[in-house]
Specification:
Blueprint lengths: L23 H36 L5 H46 L10 H4 L10 H13 L9 H26 L3 H41 L10
Length: about 240
């Protein structure tokens, strides 16, 4: 008598009692706050440009009261921009994680077999060193796959573009901050300001793509439930 082969277990199974809830309100709030991030980044780009301009004058040997006044003004705006970016980032991160948790729970109901990581990583992945370079992207990509229309082939081009730009912006920003602290000449300060300007510009692009990811993923989940093509309870 042939012993039947055991059925393979999915990488992750949704906990019992999991139900669908609409991510629309959290998605809208996340998109609005990402827009605030873009606004603060634009202000930061202006401050960065002033820093580049003043550092360039100093590197070229231009002196005088006017240069000193512009340097003080640039430094003040640079500090304000940094504070504004920090506040916007914290507020956005809190709401974004709430949205991502809701998305992930829904995605487990849609198709638990799509998920390679347990639900706790939805939050922990962002704060755990080293793995935070790719775990969050994997969680979003798995939720994207589970939320895609039945039978469709979901690509990750949009998710990959967002994540790549965000990582490059983050790493470049840290490099620019370190270079600015260690700068001993006007030329070095100018190069650090240029790097920060590029970092803030890339962050604008990353935030724009993040809005697109949030809106698209939220709409995919809404459509999937409204289509009635799944054996699950309605949004509640």
């Amino acid at each position: 008598m042939t012993t039947p082969m055991p059925m393979p277990m999915p990488p992750y199974a949704a906990p019992p009692g999991t139900w669908l809830r609409s991510p629309a309100a959290l998605g809208r709030a996340t998109a609005v706050l990402l827009g605030l991030v873009i606004a603060t980044d634009l202000f930061a780009c202006y401050a960065d440009w002033l820093e580049v301009d003043v550092a360039g004058d100093l590197a070229d040997g231009v002196t005088g009261a006017d240069v000193i006044d512009r340097a003080d003004h640039a430094d003040a705006l640079y500090g304000i921009a940094g504070i504004a970016q920090g506040v916007a980032l914290v507020a956005t991160a809190v709401v974004y994680l709430c949205w991502l948790w809701r998305i992930r729970v829904n995605a487990e109901v849609f198709d638990a077999s799509r998920h390679r990581m347990k639900r706790g990583w939805v939050i922990g992945a962002w704060f755990c060193p080293v793995v935070n370079l790719w775990f969050p992207r994997r969680i979003v990509a798995d939720s994207w796959d589970a939320s895609a229309p039945w039978g469709s082939r979901s690509g990750h081009a949009l998710v990959n573009a967002w994540w790549t730009l965000w990582l490059v912006s983050l790493l470049l920003g840290r490099f620019a901050e370190r270079s600015s602290r260690q700068a001993e000449t006007a030329d070095a300060l100018r190069e650090a300001a240029k790097a920060m300007l590029l970092s803030d510009s890339l962050d604008i692009a990353a935030a724009t793509l993040a809005i697109t990811v949030v809106v698209h993923l939220t709409r995919m989940q809404e459509r999937k439930v409204l289509s009635g093509e799944m054996p699950a309870p309605a949004l509640g």
